[in-house]
Inverse folding.
């Protein structure tokens, strides 16, 4: 199975901050990488697919990038509604695998 | 509105059987695979498997193969996740999610999610 290693596992930040969350794949997955946001008690929601494509309806402060097996989710200016958990997921090969998640908390 | 409607919460005893459901609405059900994802209390997301509702072909994660059964009934636009003998460790929230393909290439992602079904297994 392809392992997805996310960092950090938790992060404290303030409204207006720029935040980066990183995901590293254990082997090449091209750009078959998606990012999801999950708020407590809710289902996940896709933010970014194919490493850097913004899902329809998602604010433009969210962006994704890729460099080899390293992927980054960037939130350019944190808003109060962005405090949540974030997961990466590879869709390159079965089984799909998720990163362990990053919990973004208010500082 | 495109949505996946999941069945309600369940409380079961160890050794009991269970089937939970996920009904698609607002789109052609047979055009999209359905994924199942587990989230244990306070933990992250785990992909369990997916099913092609048009042919009922199933792809399981090795971690879940043999422990659960994924099925679908296209005449009811519904996918199912089933256990023959529940364990306390099956206590979790189970999400179904629609798999969609990017128009221009083979990238896939889960674009529509059910609200989740909570399963509690306790004696």
């Amino acid at each position: 199975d392809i392992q997805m290693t996310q960092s950090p596992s938790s992060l404290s930040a303030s409204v207006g901050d720029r935040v980066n969350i990183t995901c590293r794949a254990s082997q090449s997955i091209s750009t078959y990488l998606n990012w999801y946001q999950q708020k407590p008690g809710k289902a996940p929601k896709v933010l970014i697919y194919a490493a850097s494509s913004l899902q329809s309806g998602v604010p433009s402060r969210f962006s994704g990038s890729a460099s080899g097996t390293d992927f980054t989710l960037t939130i350019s200016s944190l808003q109060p509604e962005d405090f949540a958990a974030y997961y990466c997921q590879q869709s390159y090969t079965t089984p799909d695998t998720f990163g362990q998640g990053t919990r973004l908390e208010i500082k | 509105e495109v949505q996946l409607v999941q069945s309600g919460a369940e409380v079961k005893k160890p050794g009991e059987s269970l089937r939970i459901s996920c009904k698609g609405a607002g789109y052609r059900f047979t055009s999209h695979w359905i994924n199942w994802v587990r989230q244990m209390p306070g933990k992250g997301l785990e992909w369990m498997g997916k099913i092609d509702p048009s042919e009922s072909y199933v792809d399981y994660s090795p971690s879940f193969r043999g422990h659960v059964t994924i099925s679908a009934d296209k005449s009811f636009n519904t996918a199912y996740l089933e256990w023959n003998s529940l364990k306390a460790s099956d206590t979790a929230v189970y999400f179904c999610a629609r798999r969609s393909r990017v128009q221009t290439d083979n990238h896939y992602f889960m674009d529509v999610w059910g609200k989740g079904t909570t399963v509690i297994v306790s004696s």
Observations:
- The interface with chain B takes residues 1, 31-32, 34, 36, 38, 42-46, 49-50, 53, 55, 85, 87, 89, 91, 94-101 of chain A (CB under 8 Å).
- Chain A has a mean pLDDT of 97.
